[in-house]
Design a protein that fits this description.
The structure is a homodimer of 455-residue chains.
Chain A lengths: L6 E2 L9 E3 L23 H5 L4 H8 L5 E3 L2 H7 L7 E3 L1 H7 L4 E6 L10 H13 L4 E6 L3 H13 L2 E7 H6 L1 H9 L3 E5 L5 H9 L7 H14 L3 E3 L6 H20 L6 E5 L4 H15 L6 E7 L4 H4 L1 E6 L8 E6 L21 H8 L4 E5 L1 H15 L5 H20 L4 E6 L7 H8 L10 H8 L7
Parallel strand pairs in A: 5-15, 6-7, 6-9, 7-8, 10-11, 10-15, 11-14
Antiparallel strand pairs in A: 1-4, 2-3, 4-5, 12-13
Helix pairs in contact in A: 2-11, 3-5, 4-15, 5-6, 6-8, 9-10, 11-12, 15-16
Chain lengths: 455, 455
């Protein structure tokens, strides 16, 4: 075996040419998504009124194992992919662990995260359908940035409803999107009926993700030639993100490395789902075994403390219902800087895998996450996103266990993005002003009371 | 010949193991730097009072052609190098040009620029000498960030004097440095004699780079075990940055590509000097020929409108004098967002190459630079730094000339960094509020009147 380099790059001809749909290998499938009006499984026709047709098909297809990646998307991928699988030699040395730590780094593009993998796919199918443009919401701004880049590439109009508090506090994120030609509107706005209503009801409100989703959906269905797109949670998004896991597996295979443990942070579940898909596939087919750990913030613990039930995907209750681990769509996470992990639910695919015991979950507190982030940055050079740092925390914990037991485990984790636009959180940490908060059982019970009656 | 991929990555074993000192191949050498007190060539002993000894030796050595890159530095390089040489297929298509455009992308690390290449070398030699720490100044913040990362890696104390106006307007830059453990002090401060004096003389001043340099130098010479380090202009920095050019040439050679034209932005000259070094070496040895273009802002045109003469490197006049193309150390550039290009002078190596006619220079206006930046971002995905975008502007102009003439030139340019921390400038551009300013002949004549009498 060759010596393992710091960074394993695949050649362009080693890049995946198909996405992998893990549902195709699942014997027990995730429960179908439901029409919020009828509580019946959503039909392709219903879904195609909101989403592009090809994407709606991907969303509903739980049997096809592989989907060809269209050439136009593969060409775009080549501009920032394959992403490197990095051997964390310096972190290993710092920890004094016999474990071998690898991370798949998805931050090497201007959106700063893995979000671009699905954004470009969704923009492509919108263009292919002859649409004028797409609408979406963004909170932290990574998804909005990724979609702006993708739409600019395919010359599509891009309308982003950005939660007003983020719009005001993250002007740089907003300007990146505008540089890529997107229209960025603070939500709630006066553009939509739902926005006007909320503004009238709660004057001076700084908005919420739920409200921004409702505005984006309304904007999509009321404008000719527009559809709504979403950056996480959906099965189609996990399908596109499987490129992360496929590349990771190809890079490990190239050097004859067998992963023992795969760790990813989990908000809506798209990065985690994408990373683990091909490995879970091997487990499902009885070909291999892996310890897979989903890491979530203790402040928003949908897998570790939520309920597996049908729930609304958005606070506005306009999207289909999904069966998932959820804290209730009315759950408001406390101050938590990992904006991308502040989602009340979890992808129905990840939820079902967790329910079947194929993956485990762990929750970690914010302060310990930033300690891990700082240690990682100082030895590995990359300034990680707060979201990604949840996975770093658990990777370090597991490497330290190996130090005690002497095990030479191969630990692989997903480094989903960079923290350049999260310096307000780092500043709090640097100043010792960061705090932890874990919701009480009473608070969770109250929030879970809002679940719709479906089952 | 194989098809040229979007990104040419060298293998780790193809990375340079030596830096190249272009002065070794120059028959007429750059003029020696002078002691500001005696106006005599600086001795190694004098220089070693300010700089680390090994770096002072590199600074004064104009004959040795190659310096081994120490293994510790090569290991650090492996965390973010080799950087990709990217074929700009999408930009070519957008322009409809027969030219082939390549860019060497140095923004794939947390400092966001090429600065890290020299920062890690300077930190290494400081550690090797047994120093406690280093001091420096930073304006825009790229250099300070790079040095913080390098010092954190070698466990060295890092004291950064940050121009007060930047400290206040760029809190994110400041926090990145703090996350890597640096002490960041707004300059002028009350820590140093020169800082206290300036604060007393100009109450409420927001500082200047010249003042920050003076404070950093004073902090270095008055603390036991500290030395001063600088991120550009110096010949040692160009030596370290030669890794950019060596990798570029190796990548081109790997695919049998002969560059016709090499373009880089020029502030202090370190990125440009590093990129072009091995190509200039070939010209000097009569082995090949290239059109080499240095691009500078029209607002700070040291090569195109400056004078080739001895001048102070800093406004505080504490550093050695260098013979260079300069606008006068008292030159204050007008509002110009390319912070890294707002230097009154130019590396003495680049200046001498320019004087010998081995390279040419061109100045471009800010608005046209941002137009190029936006076009590039939208098709190539990467959001470029304003500094780097000067090179993009000229690369596009040259590619459009090829469109007229039908020439299939190979155009290579340096993409030195990313613009994530420059969104205030992009916002101005997006809002149509950006303006151009070119200094008048009278202004330049007045500033050039401040040149010291040496020649």
């Amino acid at each position: 075996m060759n010596e393992i380099p710091y960074k394993i790059y695949l050649e362009e001809n080693e890049m995946p040419t198909q996405w992998y749909n893990v549902r195709g290998d699942m014997k027990k499938k995730p429960a179908p998504i439901l029409n919020p009006g009828t509580l019946q499984p959503v039909t392709l026709e219903e879904l195609s009124a909101i989403f592009c047709e090809d994407l709606a098909k991907q969303e509903l297809d739980d049997t096809t194992r592989f989907f060809d990646i269209p050439e136009e998307i593969r060409n775009f991928y080549k501009m920032y992919r394959p992403s490197p699988l990095v051997r964390a030699y310096c972190l290993e040395k710092k920890l004094g662990t016999p474990a071998h730590i690898y991370y798949k780094f998805e931050g090497n593009n201007t959106s700063g995260s893995h979000k671009l993998n699905s954004a470009i796919a969704q923009a492509y199918y919108a263009k292919k359908q002859g649409l004028k443009g797409v609408t979406t919401e963004t909170g932290a701004g990574q998804w909005g940035t990724a979609l702006s880049m993708a739409c600019s590439y395919f010359d599509l109009d891009c309308q982003v409803y950005m939660v007003k508090v983020s719009y005001e506090q993250k002007p740089f994120r907003r300007e990146v999107m505008r540089t890529y030609g997107a229209q960025v509107t603070p939500s709630p706005s006066m553009n939509t009926e739902v926005g006007r209503k909320i503004n009238a009801e709660f004057p001076g409100t700084t908005g919420s993700l739920g409200c921004a989703i409702s505005e984006a959906v309304e904007a999509a269905v009321t404008q000719e030639g527009y559809r709504y797109v979403l950056g996480s949670v959906l099965s189609q998004v996990l399908l596109h993100q499987s490129v992360i896991g496929l590349e990771t597996k190809a890079a490990l295979d190239k050097y004859g490395i067998k992963a023992d443990m795969i760790i990813g942070c989990a908000g809506g579940g798209s990065n985690l789902g994408g990373l683990i898909s091909p490995f879970v596939g091997e487990i499902l087919r009885g070909e291999a075994n892996y310890d897979i750990i989903a890491v979530e913030p203790a402040s928003c613990p949908s897998l570790t403390r939520g309920k597996y039930a049908y729930d609304f995907c958005d606070t506005g209750k306009v999207c289909p219902l999904a069966k998932m681990y959820t804290l209730g769509s009315g759950f408001i996470p406390s101050a938590n800087h990992a904006g991308g992990l502040r989602y009340h639910g979890m992808s129905s695919v990840v939820s079902e895998l967790y329910d079947q015991g194929l993956i485990t979950a762990r929750s970690v507190e914010q302060t310990s996450v930033f300690e891990a982030a700082e240690m990682f940055a100082r030895v590995e050079g990359i300034l990680p996103a707060p979201e990604s740092s949840h996975a770093i925390r658990v990777a370090i914990d597991e490497a330290l266990k190996c130090k005690e037991t002497g095990e030479e485990k191969n630990i692989v984790f997903g480094l989903t993005g960079t923290g350049y636009f999260d310096m307000v959180a780092y500043e709090k940490f640097n100043n010792g002003e960061m705090s932890d908060y874990i919701p009480t059982d009473e608070e969770l019970a109250k929030s879970l009371d809002t679940l719709p009656k479906v089952d």
